[in-house]
Amino acid sequence: MTADSEGTPEVTTAAAVDTGPAAYAELAAVGPYGVHPGHALITMVEPHPGHEYAYNRWYEDDHYIAGAMAMPWIFAGRRWVATRELQLLRRPEKSAVARPVTAGCYLSTYWITAGRYDEHMKWTVGINKRLNRDGRVYQDRTHVFTAFQDHLATVYRDGAAGPRDFHALDHPYAGLVLEVIDADGPERREALLEWLCARHLPRRLSGSPAAMVTVFRPTPLPGDRMSYVRQVEGVDTRLTLLWFLQRDPRDGWAEQFAGLEEEVAESGLGRVELVAPFLPTMPGTDRYVSELR
């Protein structure tokens, strides 16, 4: 307990928190509760050599649930993997995101309800501190590209037909491509976004195996984040694109994703810093783990 200026005892904030069932009813009764992915967590991680199997089992059997899906306002999640064959398809060779460009063989993507970012961040910082204290955080890994992101746009190949972006992490897509683009300065990002959505992406999607592309911008990580996750780069200039594919990314890779860097550069608005294909993991198995190196 503490005392106010007149000596009257006050209950501390921690003691005043209602953790009973009634508190959950009160929280659910107020605030946004739409279905759209207003925000995302996108995290690309490299397990240390020799720890691939152990990392995969820890993440899938424990962390995916306790460190993500069980949290308030995350309503969808999906894990993806890049075999060595897929890693070698990445571009550009000198990436500002992945150093080397092949780093980061696992990618996890989560949708967070629009308008609930602040509430979710409070919970995620708290639960990750607890998991770390309880020895439930796997240390033999490196965060290559981890950021919470705000949703800016979704461009669909088939207009109103087909799954929407809020279905994307539940629909059985056969592959995903992570693309990261840096605008040529903060003042150019809005123009870059407009060009992507109005011209570049509709043309690229037409007749392609990609059903949609979601576009996000990264947000800074909180100051009390876990020490093993570095602060987000490019907050004022970066755009993160997720291409959802209806077939294996290796099928027609050269035709579908050739020339991306040149087209963005020719726009005069930015530069591509990463194009990285992934396959969906198969939950409950170690499929692809033997193909990472």
- Per the CATH scheme, the topology name is Alpha-Beta Plaits
Enumerate the strands of the largest sheet in spatial order, edge to edge or round the barrel: 3-5-4-10-7-9-8-6
Number of domains: 1
The topology string of helices and strands comes to: EEHHEHEHEHEEHEEHHE
CATH architecture: 2-Layer Sandwich
Radius of gyration: 21 Å
Number of helices: 8
* Shape summary: globular
Main sheet properties: 8 strands, antiparallel, barrel
Strand elements, count = 10
Q: Tell me, what is the CATH class?
A: Alpha Beta
- Strand pairing plus helix content: what structural class? alpha+beta
Beta fraction of the residues? Answer: 25-35%
- Level of helix content? 25-40%
What does the average pLDDT come to? 91
Fold and architecture overview:
There is one protein chain. The chain has about 290 residues and is an alpha+beta fold. It has a single domain, classed as Alpha-Beta Plaits. Helices cover about 30% and strands about 30% of the residues. The protein is built from eight helices and ten strands. It has helices at about 15, 20-30, 50-70, 85, 115-135, 190-205, 255, 260-265, and strands at about 1-5, 10, 35-45, 75-80, 105-115, 140-155, 175-185, 210-220, 240-245, 270-280. It has an eight-stranded antiparallel beta barrel. A hairpin with a 5-residue loop joins strand 1 and strand 2 (about 10). The longest helix has 18 residues, at about 50-70. It is globular, with a radius of gyration of 21 Å. The model is unreliable at about 1-15 (pLDDT under 50).
